[in-house]
UniProtKB/TrEMBL annotation:
Residues 266-524 form the Malic enzyme NAD-binding domain. SUPFAM superfamilies: Aminoacid dehydrogenase-like, N-terminal domain (SSF53223), NAD(P)-binding Rossmann-fold domains (SSF51735). One of its GO terms (molecular function) is malate dehydrogenase (decarboxylating) (NAD+) activity. SMART domains: malic, Malic_M. It comes from Carpediemonas membranifera. GO terms for cellular component: mitochondrion. Residues 78-256 form the Malic enzyme N-terminal domain. This is Malic enzyme. Its cofactor is Mg(2+); Mn(2+). Belongs to the malic enzymes family. One of its GO terms (biological process) is malate metabolic process. It comes from the Eukaryota.
Length: 550
């Protein structure tokens, strides 16, 4: 699986070889390799192991003062030597993921054009390229197994930041390699620079300053893009990321029945929230049907999570309509109800959750109103409104149940509805909490309580890998829910009863192998797989992970 020195490499001269980020080993080139490939004199004479190189990185890392310095350091390292970069990430996963991924990637995106240092990572397609996208894809230098594409219109909770959002597909793809072992030379981050409605303040902004194209032009452009990708790399997985809810649902419906594609914010988030919620139920000795859910935020993430959780309640004797009655979605206009037809007409994705049973005169405008009315046992935050789960809200939720389940999923940390320590303090340690961005341990009565990051990073690498390995024609809801079950099950009963909601990040490769196997299993069962079925799916996934070694 690795892009090691090959015959093709031998045709590169020494200088090209050390400038090739996928083949470069720097001081780890052996003497023989140096002589064979014209490298003698081009690198310092010592020969080091990758472990020695990592040790040097560790010292340099400690010297860096700010998270942005660390972000830039890692970008440079990746640019110089991908193998060393991924070795460093995997050796220091808990320290480095919050830099290459949320929350620091969010801060980096906001300043992306300003901190830019000629990083050729991926492709940028703009409106003027309409009609030529297929030809332009030929400019990419390699085969591609997976693409993460954004249009920059809803980057984390930071809004429409246009081309600056490119850090997100880059970060997601780093996770595809860290998590599921995608070969980094075969992943492609793409930003569709179709303008931004926000005025980019920086004089260095690198994207189009125009507003967005009209709806017909926009959809025609995405159609052309999807068709071009399929024509150029017929077997690659296409992941949509951080598209505004205006388009996220519509594009998912448009392409999911004929393409190997999924939307991470809707489906990946639903998947990890379902896995985490299942474990929260195991931890609290409850069943999903015991719960009443309030969601703050009814966008791509909110409705994606609601739908995935509602499916947990469905059974032979319980329909999806009955399940949805457990849910109360609150958006910027208050509780989503059938009375607000204008809201539903503009946001069809909310309609299945619109309540039609609120007694006339009941106040449901604010979150507190709805909490008092619906008496939730679970609160889900996907609103981008920091601090919206206040002490009073948590206090009210604690009246309804011994152990309220509180997921504050908005990213980055600056947008989080409630921090872990606050949730513990306000609920006197009763709440079962998870957050979208990483949180430090909580101090509860002198004890350190570890925290769990309910983030789609646990599952999207395995979903993509499983779809790729099975050569699944499409990615179905059943595959996604099998992925959730595999992730939840990865935490054994004895851990769950202690309150462990998610597996440890250091096990991400193993978790991803199980998630990929679950996806493949369903792909074979449903007849969507074009690959031949291997005997042991988990082992097959493991065997097809790019190994981080020279
Ligand atoms: N943890 C994860 O894995 C994960 C995954 C996806 C999204 N997210 C995060 O969830 C957040 C929302 O993402 P999204 O894709 O759903 O965004 P979105 O723009 O589609 O939806 C945001 C929702 O919040 C609502 N909202 C805005 N202001 C509000 C207010 N004052 N009161 C109540 N509701 C309000 C909007 O009406 C909308 O329904 C983002 O911060 C994103 O980073 C986290
Ligand atoms: O990017 C993340 O950290 C998760 C999610 O996809 C998001 O949009 O917030
Ligand atoms: Mg996202």
């Amino acid at each position: 699986m690795n892009s090691r020195l090959t015959d093709e490499t031998i045709t590169m001269n020494g200088y090209e070889l050390i400038r090739n980020q996928f083949k470069n080993k720097d001081t780890a080139f052996t003497q023989e390799e140096r002589e064979a490939h014209g490298l003698v004199g081009l690198i310092p004479p010592c020969v080091e192991t990758i472990e020695q190189q990592v040790a040097r990185c560790e010292v340099q890392w400690k010297e860096l003062n700010t998270v942005m310095d660390k972000f830039i350091y890692l970008y440079h390292l990746q640019q110089a030597n991908e193998t060393l970069y991924f070795k460093f990430l995997l050796t220091h996963i808990e320290e480095t993921l919050p830099i290459v991924y949320t929350p620091t990637v969010g801060a980096a995106c906001v300043q992306y054009s300003d901190i830019w240092r000629s990083w050729p990572k991926g492709m940028y397609l703009n409106a003027s390229m309409a009609g030529s996208i297929r030809k332009i894809l030929d400019n990419w230098y390699n085969e591609v197994d997976i693409i993460v594409v954004t249009d920059g219109t809803r980057i984390l909770g930071l809004g429409d930041i246009g081309i600056n959002g490119h850090g997100i597909p880059v970060g997601k793809l780093a996770l595809y390699t860290v998590g599921a072992g995608f070969d980094p030379s075969r992943v492609l981050p793409i930003t569709l620079d179709l303008g931004t409605n926000n005025d980019p303040l920086s004089p260095f902004y690198m994207g189009s300053r125009d507003g967005h194209p009209d709806e017909d032009k926009y959809v025609a452009y995405i159609d052309e893009f999807v068709a071009a990708v399929k024509d150029k790399w017929s077997s690659c997985v296409l992941q949509f990321e951080d598209f505004s809810k205006v388009h996220a649902f519509e594009l998912l419906e448009r392409y999911r029945y004929e393409n190997r594609t999924f939307n991470d914010d809707i489906q990946g988030t639903g998947c990890i929230a379902a896995a985490t919620f299942v474990n929260a139920c195991r931890a609290t000795n409850t069943t999903p049907r015991d719960h009443r859910f309030i969601f703050l935020g009814a966008g791509a993430g909110g409705v994606g999570v609601a739908e995935a959780l509602a499916q947990l309640l469905v059974g032979p004797d319980y329909t999806i309509e009955q399940a949805r009655k457990h849910f109360y979605l609150v958006d910027s206009r208050g509780l989503v109800t059938t009375a607000d037809e204008a809201n539903l007409a503009a946001n069809e994705h909310k309609r299945p959750y619109a309540r039609d049973d609120v007694p006339a005169g009941t106040p449901v405008r604010t979150l507190m109103d709805v909490v008092k009315y619906a008496k939730p046992t679970a609160l889900m935050g996907l609103s981008t409104i920091p601090g919206s789960f206040t002490k009073e809200i948590i206090g009210e939720a604690c009246k309804n149940t011994e152990r309220p389940i509180i997921f504050a999923l908005s990213n980055p940390t600056s947008k989080c509805e409630i921090l872990a320590q606050q949730c513990s303090d306000y609920s006197h340690g009763k709440a079962v909490y998870a957050s979208g961005s990483p949180m430090p341990d909580v101090d509860f009565e002198g004890r350190k309580i570890p925290q769990y990051q309910c983030n789609n990073m646990y599952v999207f690498p395995g979903i993509g890998h499983g779809a790729m390995l099975a050569q699944a024609k499409i990615i179905t809801e059943e595959m996604i829910s099998a992925a959730a079950t595999a992730c939840a099950k990865y935490v054994p009963d004895e851990e769950v009863v202690k309150g462990v909601l998610l597996p440890r990040l250091k096990d991400i490769r193993e978790i991803s192998a199980h998630v990929a196997a679950a996806v493949m299993e369903v792909a074979f069962e449903q007849g969507h797989a074009m690959a031949e079925r291997p005997a042991d799916l988990v082992q097959y996934a493991r065997d097809h992970q790019w190994k981080v070694q020279y």
